[in-house]
TrEMBL record:
Residues spanning the signal sequence: none
Protein name as it appears in the record: Sulfatase-modifying factor 1
Region annotation Disordered: where it falls in the sequence: 233-252
The keyword DNA repair belongs to this UniProt entry's keyword annotation: no
UniProt superkingdom: Bacteria
GO molecular function annotation: formylglycine-generating oxidase activity
Pfam families: FGE-sulfatase
Organism the protein comes from: Mycobacterium adipatum
Length: 292
């Protein structure tokens, strides 16, 4: 069953920020036409229905082409994906390789490798989906992926504050989104008890009634990433469809932050925040939602 759509009125809004990271600048006025967006990210159950109906094989499940990995022994070219592993203690936060590892067998069915499962987590956002996987699901659903401007408009829900809910990250002490609680990347006390992804709708909706626009998982957009906003970039419409395996040289803009965002490392659980990810990447903290 597809996620229900929430109709948004469209209009002009101020996109971006100059208060946090340089890639969020410049602040500029963007206008979007009315559109509808899924209330929450696509879940494991919904992605499983798509796979069952189509037989689709995700990028993380496909054999690797030796021509793309010169010098790597062929017996090491096995399907897999990037998996987050908490470190034993404090580490240099400039070296992401200390907590990200390539895990053979990791895919949407087995997010952390062969021995992991999504059993009991069907209402969590699907992860380990590369950009072509998200685009394929959207096409099957008769929908499409949002542009960065559409996504930010939906996340802001009329707000002009740092966070979608105001300028206080925890108003009245309330945790508003699934983000890292503790010291990154070694101590996580859990967000309302959840370490990693949480069931969609665990945290309060924004003013448009949308769930998990902030935190839980980063979400793919159709906008090609640039080091700063391109003010001449169309606010609507889609880029050409990605190749079936994605182009590792092309980065898309991600939005929303995830359960791995922490103030000392990734203060990106805000509507204006953005990140770069190559089209062929699949990880334990990236998902998506569709628009219509």
């Amino acid at each position: 069953m597809l996620t229900d759509l929430v109709d948004l009125p469209g209009g002009a809004f101020r996109m971006g920020s100059i208060d946090f990271y340089p890639e969020e600048a410049p602040v500029h006025t963007v206008s979007v036409a009315p559109f509808a967006i899924e209330r929450h990210p696509v879940t494991n159950a919904q992605f499983a229905e798509f796979v069952s109906d189509t037989g689709y094989v995700t990028v993380a499940e496909r054999a690797l082409d030796p021509a793309d990995f010169p010098g790597v022994p062929e017996d090491e070219l096995v399907p897999g994906a990037l998996v987050f592993r908490a470190t034993a203690g404090p580490v240099n936060l400039r070296d992401w390789r200390q907590w990200w590892t390539w895990e053979p067998g990791a895919c949407w069915r087995h997010p952390f490798g062969h021995d992991s499962t999504i059993e009991g987590r069907l209402d969590h956002p699907v992860v380990q989906v590369a950009y072509p996987d998200a685009a394929a699901y959207a096409a099957w659903a008769g929908r499409r992926l949002p542009t960065e401007a559409q996504w930010e408009y939906a996340a802001r829900a009329g707000s002009t504050t740092a966070y979608a809910w105001g300028d206080d990250v925890r108003p009245d002490g309330q945790l508003m989104a699934n983000t890292w609680q503790g010291r990154f990347p070694y101590l996580n006390d859990g967000a309302r008890g959840w370490v990693g992804t949480s069931p969609v709708g665990t945290f309060p909706p924004n003013a448009f009634g949308l769930l998990d626009m902030i935190g839980n998982v980063w979400e793919w957009t159709t906008t090609r990433y640039a080091r700063q906003h391109r003010v001449d970039q169309p606010a609507e419409g889609c880029c050409p469809p990605p190749s079936p395996s994605g182009d590792p040289s092309v980065n898309q803009a991600l939005k929303g932050g995830s359960h791995l965002c922490a103030p000392e490392y990734c203060h990106r659980y805000r509507p204006a925040a953005r990140s770069s990810q190559s089209q062929d990447s699949a990880t334990t903290h990236i998902g998506f939602r569709c628009i219509a």
